[in-house]
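Subject: for your reference before the review

Hello V.,

The reviewers asked for a structural picture of the protein, and I figured it would be easier to keep everything in one thread rather than splitting it across files. Below is the amino acid sequence we used in the manuscript, unchanged from the supplementary table.
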Amino acid sequence: MAGPLDGIKVIEVGQALAGPLAGVILADMGADVIKVEKPDGGDDARLWGPPFVDGDSVSFHSNNRGKRSVTLDIKDAADVAKLKLLAADADILIQNLRPGIVDELGIGPDALMAVNPRLVYCSIWAFGYTGPLKLAPGFDPLLQCYGAVVTLTGRPEDPSTFCAPAINDTATGMWCVIGALAALQQRDRTGRGCVVDASLFESAVAWVQGPLNTYNVTGTLPQRHGTGSNLLVPYQIFETADRPLCIAAGNDRLFVKLARAMGHPEWCDDPLLADGRKRAANRHAVVDAMQPVLLTRTRQDWLGIIGEAGVPVAPVNNIAELAATEQLQAMDMLRTLPGSNLRVVGLPISFNRERPHPAGAAPKLGEHNAAVFSTSRHE
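And here is what came back from the structure prediction:
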């Protein structure tokens, strides 16, 4: 079945994570994504291992499935001309090269939109298209630090702590796709493309919008609460007799259900625990009341008791446990790449209750040079 973006042509000039992630989202939704790689080694992410499958990293396979690979030396005038020829009938171009280099090489938005006024030109920056850090390079951990999220993660006594997933790269890839799809809608009305800019910095700021907004009102730095929320209590991980679980009683109604399920309805009458504001102000009193009770039973016991009461609760899974869950299987999130035994996480969106299948495996470096460039010359 054709994907929702069938017929859309995308040129991806980038590497690592944010740009390729944007490209693979579009590819999984049916777009023809032509990945432009440097002739000498290609995308750096090909070497982001171990593990490796068929010579390339699993990360590369996952984020470049279903694309076609061509090689161009964009510092060479003849290859720049080839890139412009590819862009002449493209719908979207995505680039996340070193800030400023596309204009130096003559492949920036002005140059390529002069060739194709209908082009949606997407740039992924480290710190954004303007400001004193416009030309600064950046990777996800740098932006986790600059964007302050490391100061919000962990317990008060912990050092600054990274989020393990590359949250800024991932978010920026998604923001890029959202902007590109909106720009296509606008093009349908106006007949003209536009420039879409996203950056790891903007994504980083978006992640901390709550604490930043609060700071702008109060002037007070947010405190870290380990696994807990700074606004909702109880909303955190607790220990049980054997394994940890997470309880998220995010309002007064849920707290009443939780207290009754745990055999302590009197908590609802305690002046320190009676409503959400009081529980947030007396976090330690809530935790001190709940934790000894939770230690009297196993995690599986409490998952049943608390879950049956209608209170949100979940086990703290490791990756192996996540991989074995019935829910992961039921949602059919893993995809076997065509022509390979490699299974990767698929697109986290379904259309008519069907998750898109990758159009193909990740390409070998320059695998589609002949097909793509012969078509471009013919056109």
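For the response letter, the relevant points are probably these. The mean pLDDT is 94. The chain has 16 helices and 13 strands.

Happy to draft the paragraph if you're swamped.

O.
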